[in-house]
Amino acid sequence: MASDSLTTSSGTPVSAASTTGHPAGDGPDPKRWLALAVIAIAQLMVVLDASIVNIAIPEAAIDLGISQANIQWVVTAYTLAFGGLLLLGGRIADFIGRKRAFLIGLAGFAFASALGGIAPNQELLFAARGLQGAFAALLAPAALSLLAVTFTDPKERAKAFGVFGAISGGGAAIGLILGGVLTEYASWRWTLGVNVPIAIVTMIFAVSLVKESRATGDRRYDVPGVLLSALGLVALVYGFSKAAEEGVGWSDPVTLTLLAAAAVLLVSFVLYERRASHPLLPLRVVLDRNRGGSYLIFLLVGAGIFAIFLFLTFYFQQTLGYSPLESGFAFLPFSGGIIVGAGIVSQLLPRVGPKPLMIVGLAMAVAGMLWLTGIGETSSYVTEVLPALIVISVGMAAVFVPTSSTALVGVEEHDAGIASAVLNTSQQVGGSLGLALLNTFYASAVTGYLVDNPGTSQGSAFVQGYHVAFIGGAVLLGIALVAALVFISAKKDDLPTEGALAV
To answer: How does it sit in the membrane (predicted)?
Structure first.
């Protein structure tokens, strides 16, 4: 991204002269660092929500009677809505005003969190999680855009985005511990309810500290594009989920109908975007070799890695008998590996270029995922789980950092924001699809093992299911490795000075 004129998450150019509430010539906002604190807290809440709920899933499943086939919807409902609406959320924020979108996003996120926290059944919990994702899709790009227009000095902007990035990277670790504490000493419901007071306090301070700004020019929305893409993705994920249900399977008419509908809707989306005057996703952004390869890698990595948290959470709590808090601490090395690894990779990237780092990182991730297929009912965390987590996390750092840069290689300034948003969308959508697909494999493996081995323990069947899911994750990461080999051609001198930021 250029330092003197940044584009927002919807791709609209933003400069001091193109915003309202802080026009050019007024000088820097005297409250900008306090505004950064408010924006960072909102970002932390969004990041926390993914990891904090993961730890609580086993308890929620028992409390609400959620089946193994449906449990992934606690995560998938959120990631699908978040990823599917992220591009639209950025455009809405640009048009209605970023501060207004920020406040609406906070209020909606708090309401959805409260609704999920009091949900008496799985249906309302899934709906609340989807609503959380929808408001997060408005809140996250609004926060990113507010940073861009609040900090106009290149050095200050770099510091602000550094804080934002650190929150994004470290927030997951905080969520793991907080989720364990709340689940163990209060209730799984508080992993959702805790968002309410945070959002309310943040809103109160945001009213006076955050300045309004909005994009100028044409403000038309690509409503057909939104409907086609969102419905297509929902049909695809739901089709995978139906295949996991007992008595349904891949050949069931309902499954086949959903998958066929998904194919028609998504193909129609691409065809419509080719001729739309104001496309939700300009195809020129994704058709570039390096950028398109980066998005594919993030989609596949999201699909493979999200499975770790869901299935290892069940493994820790149901198989090894860990408490929710112990499970949270068990994941900490993964977050630490990514944070430390990202620092090292950031130093190596300008020297060796993106492709070697991606290849090494993805190879490590595949090896770590296959390592996890050796876990059993009485495995040692220190000798059999921890090494795999460290290998995968360091490998992921070697993927995330360079891919965030190659996602912006050669992009025009007015498309930089949309290029960043597509990267985030790819990760969230990949996570949704991966969870649905791998949960299908897991459920089928558990059922098949119990049928083929009558009299065996349910714990053995669960472990067999975990193995199948981890193999599936390794395959997805392996495909990402092939994509890096085939598509990524950028050299170190081709990289932009700033990478895309994940929200």
So the answer is: Multi-pass membrane protein
